[in-house]
Amino acid sequence: METAEIRRRWLDYFERNKHTVVPSAPLIYDDPNLLFVNAGMVPFKPYFLGQQTPPWDRATSVQKCVRTGDIEEVGKTSRHGTFFQMNGNFSFGDYFKEGAIRLAWGLITASVDEGGYGLDPERIWPTVYIDDDEAFAIWHEQIGIPTDRITRRDANDNYWHMGVPGPGGPSSELFYDRGSEYGQDGGPAVDEDRYMEFWNLVFMQEELSAVRSKPDFDVAGPLPKRNIDTGMGLERMATLLQGKDNLYEIDEVYPVLAKAAQMTGKVYGAHSGHAATSSHPDDVHLRVVADHVRSSLMLIGDGVTPGNEGRGYVLRRMLRRAVRAMRLLGYGDKVLPQLLPVSLDRMKASYPELETDFGRISQIAYGEEDAFRRTLDQGTTILDTAVTKAKQSSAALGGSSTPTLPGSEAFALHDTYGFPIDLTLEMAAEQGVAVDREGFVRLMTEQRERAKADAKAKKSGHAHTEIWKELRELGATDWQAYQALSTEGTVVGLVSDGQRVDGLEQGATGQVVLDRTTFYAESGGQIADEGFITTPTGRLRVLDVQRPVKGLVVHTVEVATGEVKVGEQVEAQVDPDWRISACQAHSGTHVVHAALRQVLGPSALQSGSYNKPGYLRLDFAWNSALSAETRSEIEEVANLAVRQDLPVSSQYMTLPEAREWGALALFGETYDEQVRVIEIGGPWSRELCGGTHVAHSSQVGALTLTGESSVGSGVCRVEAFVGMEALRYLAKERAIVAELGRLVKAQPGELRERVEELLTRVKTAEREIATLRQQQLQAQAGELLAGASDIGGVRVLTHDGGDLGADEVRSLVTGLRSRLGDEHPSVVAVTGAAKGRPLIVVATNAAARDRGIRAGDLVRTAAGVLGGGGGGKPDIAQGGGTDASAVGAALEAVEGQLHNLTGVR
Ligand code: ATP
Ligand code: MG
Hints:
Layout: H1 3-16, E1 20-21, H2 45-48, E2 58-66, E3 83-92, H3 97-109, E4 124-129, H4 133-143, E5 151-153, H5 155-158, E6 159-161, E7 166-177, E8 195-213, E9 216-233, H6 234-241, H7 254-264, H8 281-301, H9 310-328, H10 336-347, H11 353-356, H12 358-396, E10 404-405, H13 407-417, H14 421-430, E11 434-435, H15 437-460, H16 462-473, E12 478-479, E13 486-496, E14 499-501, E15 503-504, E16 509-514, E17 516-517, E18 531-534, E19 539-546, E20 554-561, E21 564-565, E22 569-574, H17 576-600, E23 606-612, E24 615-621, H18 628-643, E25 648-654, H19 655-660, E26 674-680, E27 685-688, E28 703-712, E29 715-722, H20 724-744, H21 751-785, E30 789-791, E31 794-800, H22 806-820, E32 826-834, E33 837-844, H23 846-850, H24 855-865, E34 869-872, E35 876-880, H25 887-904
Parallel strand pairs: 1-2, 4-5, 10-11, 12-17, 31-32
Antiparallel strand pairs: 2-3, 3-9, 4-7, 6-7, 7-8, 8-9, 13-14, 13-16, 13-22, 15-21, 16-20, 18-19, 18-22, 19-20, 23-24, 24-29, 25-26, 26-27, 28-29, 30-31, 32-33, 33-35, 34-35
Helix pairs in contact: 3-4, 7-8, 7-10, 8-9, 8-10, 8-12, 9-12, 10-12, 12-13, 13-15, 17-18, 21-22, 24-25
The structure holds adenosine-5'-triphosphate (ATP) and magnesium ion.
């Protein structure tokens, strides 16, 4: 049975059983504690927590999930995907244990012809919480499962809570026995791969007063309203119903695996049995590829872009792991352009938006692969140098110890170049070099500790959230930012240093919550308003405005004069000049966005923005740098729109209506039922937006693009000044031009020609200087020749060339060598410096080489003394190091070695 069919049957079944079908929320959800939605219940959390009243008693969904904690399991177990879909049915105070168990049993055991999944009842092994006799009895007495197939498990496995005080309850999980070819007898407690968990039923029945760890919590009493939350892994059911060994072999995943196998010439499964836990490494790699490619597709589809932290890092890691796994399988070329479309092809049936959005998605994915390939190449060069060094120092110690790459080098490769440690290990091993893993692990641990400390520091800000929730319970802020610039209001709460207080005195900084305000809270890229709050005794300067929880506006203020107390009547006044400029900047952002799309096409979609009075910045999906012409075209289209004085209007509608209308929503944002659409010039620009705007486009004033840069793979950034700032910016540029004209004595129109002329003159002069220096050197060479000494019949000329550059040293050395002639064996060694680092060049003539003297050998010795390395051919070689004070010693080392060489012969 295809995955799409399993999904369809699920929704039909629960709809027939009076559940409302709720569409999947995006993977990024409005929950500060979650990186990604990781269970079907996440969007329903406010109902389970009693914060909101559910609009239905029963609901069902197929929710997109990503579990980052399962990354390491992928491919090694048979059942863990990083992305997967969780089918859920939910009861809010409606049916409970018996209902949930009966509904589950009904669907899985009904025959395929009857619309069910047709699982063999004999193979189903339920688990229950140790003391949940009620659930045990339902399974045994009502459903008829023999007692030896019902396992009682403790709170580590079968008790659910959110890790914080709140609702909790026992769970009952359903496992399917896949047979002895998958592992040992004995039920789920013995082998979780043979007995595969596919459904978890959670019975929320208790209020917890304290939670210390998963199994350690205090029950305060029964919940007034008992709820049901269940989760069935869609992929796991597909694995069972399609008779596959693991979830990477099902219809939605396997085609990518097959393609990867074909590309790498591997025969999947050739060396593995049924159990994933004992698979051949090649098979594990192929599964990782298939899983990660799909997860990346889904993540980018929901608005994640690769980055170095948080969500972006998870995506980056998965894309890189996929590329790397292909490398380990022996495939070095680009992989995503071949694999991503295969995954799209499988996923688009359930998620058609992936197809319409594939231009953007693939641009981001391919860009990231290209960047990673560069990283790999760069890292490889650095690794090779480090490996060579490790070999040299081992050789210097007589070659008795295995050459070892220091942990610090491996860590730097990992940390700075994103070069994975296992790749370092592997590539070093190929060259016969070991890696100091302990050192590496120590450095990694230190780094992790630092990260942990950081996270802790962030959490302490968490105490605030509780306060905001308390204040929010007093009522939502009556927010008047769109209607007025000033309003009267009452102080409902004050916070200082994370604590609620009754008053703030002159000079203090703290947070103020009013029942009503006109201040714009930072959001949607627009920064917070500036202004003042006037109290009966003084004035508060507003430094920042945020909305830490939905519906609550919080001003951070500094008490400029007087004081403020809870309960006081105050006036909130936004600085009108500030607001006008802020509106100009935000409308300007929409204008630039629309202009971008008009010039570049609809795939140039905004992925982030920032605006403040006079300035705006916009990031958008685009893979290459914009040419100067394209930029001025965008600038011109934007300014034309400003000049046309297009009306700017806002209206509210539902999200589907807004989509219908073609309004652009930001990826990954979550929106309310009613959304606000800002329109500029009718359909020319329609965007979902909560910001403040001008009434007519001409009010944006002048608009000038200042720069454009690439901020990450597949993302471009444009920056612009608007209004007065634009004029100031242009005036500043004009002043620079005037100043330059004065300096080079030219009119602005002639500047370019004049500068070009000057540059040519500089180049010519430089060339002349170089020639003169050469001549000087050759003249000096005559004097130097007199200083040649004799070592065992070889004429040897060493010279400290001071700060002569590499080219100069080389030509001096070759010049001296030819002047010494061919008749006698001769060797020349001269030192110099490049960018502050000492260097040495050694040359031999044919007669010297006949005596077994090689320039390369001499240079290696000398460069070693300089604290570096080098090499070259027997006739001429170059090396360098870091210790400039050792130049004399390096030349002596050359002479010393010549003594040895000539002495033995
Ligand atoms: P497991 O112990 O097998 O990792 P779990 O206890 O973490 O599973 P739950 O948190 O109970 O799983 O999630 C409910 C259901 O979601 C599971 O019964 C399973 O079918 C599915 N599921 C959980 N994690 C994954 C995953 N990484 N990939 C695919 N399906 C999953
Ligand atoms: Mg579970």
